[in-house]
Write a structure and sequence with these properties.
alpha+beta; 11-stranded mixed β-sheet; 3 domains; 15 strands; two-stranded antiparallel sheet; Pseudouridine synthase; single chain; nucleus; EC 5.4.99.25
């Protein structure tokens, strides 16, 4: 049922004569409206309690399927990007009155939703989401730079290059100065070569390196590859901790950067905290929806605001909303990862 029809069913019948005169409608027109409203009320009454709720859920399901575009959410520390996407999907389905078990049974309509650019489970920050035809826009929308705030810890190396891993080495850091770090950072600006972490979503023989490592398999490091650092600055130094602000291109690993900084300083280092503050044209402060705003209406409003961020060539290609049919729905989640090696499509139903 359309949204306008929902409003008729849920609105009380108005019979104030003065109001009728003020609206300058004819008696015949008002009579027709009264009959229609009375008939609608009779349908609701005959359907019994809960009908209005079902009508509302149907309208929400229709609106959910009509959503199309790109927006951003705030990912907390803990869940993986895929887990967060599933959490978002579950909240939207529940709001629309379509629990997951129902979606596995109905295949007539598809809700496409995906994220672009995997963020480590131990990291927090902005995660860009595509919904509807917006899933096809993610690669183009996110071809720009990313920005991170990282807190590194000197004197401690781990197998994952961050605080979640096992300590593999410890070295002194007491003679390292702020000037030493600032001098080292200049070596990591521009086009550089970087070896990706062993614990990553990169693959070997179709399996993620991180999964192989967790199973105790022997994994060889991927060869160094070219990456780009647009800017890097030291924000704070309070030994053993240092905070850096990094803007980089795709395929760049902050964990590898922090580890390499430690080695250049004749010590070692690992990431203590990591926050992504920018992804493409989206920023954490301006565009990321917190979890309490993961509703159909809030996302619809966010999609409208974020449409101004589309490049001109994408704006011209914006298509009509997805055709919707609340009677038969299914769900497809698509994850577009950071690099070409991770460019496989992950689908969950």
């Amino acid at each position: 049922m359309a949204a306008g029809e929902t409003a008729v069913l849920s609105s009380p019948l108005k019979t104030d004569v003065a109001h009728v005169c003020e609206t300058a409608e004819t008696g015949a027109a008002m009579a027709r409206k009264s009959v229609s409203a009375a008939a609608a009320a009779a349908i609701v009454a005959s359907a019994g309690p809960g009908c209005e709720s079902r009508v509302s859920k149907s309208a929400l399901a229709t609106k959910l399927l009509s959503l199309s575009g790109v927006f951003a959410v705030h990912k907390p520390r803990g869940p993986t990007s895929a887990e967060l996407l599933n959490r978002l999907k579950e909240k939207l389905l529940a709001e629309a009155g379509m629990p997951s078990s129902e979606w596995t049974k109905r295949k007539k309509q598809t809700l496409k939703i995906g994220h672009g650019g995997t963020l480590d489970s131990a990291a927090r920050g902005i995660l860009v989401i595509g919904i509807g035809r917006g899933t096809k826009m993610l690669s183009s929308m996110l071809s720009g730079s990313k920005r991170y705030i990282a807190i590194g810890e000197l004197g401690k190396a781990t197998d994952t290059l961050d605080s979640t891993g096992k300590v593999t080495d410890e070295k002194p850091y007491d003679k390292i100065t702020q000037e030493d770090i600032e001098g080292i950072l200049r070596k990591f600006t521009g086009n550089i070569m970087q070896i990706p972490p062993l614990y990553s979503a990169l693959k070997k023989d179709g399996q993620r390196l991180s999964a192989l490592m967790k199973r105790g398999k022997v994994v060889e490091a991927k060869p160094a590859r070219p990456v780009t650092v647009y800017s890097i600055s030291l924000e704070k130094f309070q030994p053993p901790f240092f905070t850096i602000d990094v803007e980089c291109g795709g395929g760049f690993y902050i964990r590898s950067l922090v580890s390499d900084i430690g080695k250049e300083l004749s010590s070692c280092a690992s990431v203590l905290e990591l926050t992504r503050t920018k992804q493409g044209p989206f920023t954490l402060e301006e565009h990321a929806l917190p979890e309490d705003k993961w509703t159909i209406d809030d996302i619809a409003q966010c999609l409208e605001r974020c449409s101004a961020l589309f490049p001109a060539e994408l704006a011209l290609k914006k298509s009509k909303p997805e055709e919707s049919n609340a009677q038969g729905l299914s769900c497809e989640c698509v994850a577009l990862n950071e690099t070409k090696e991770e460019g496989d499509v992950i689908k969950t139903v």
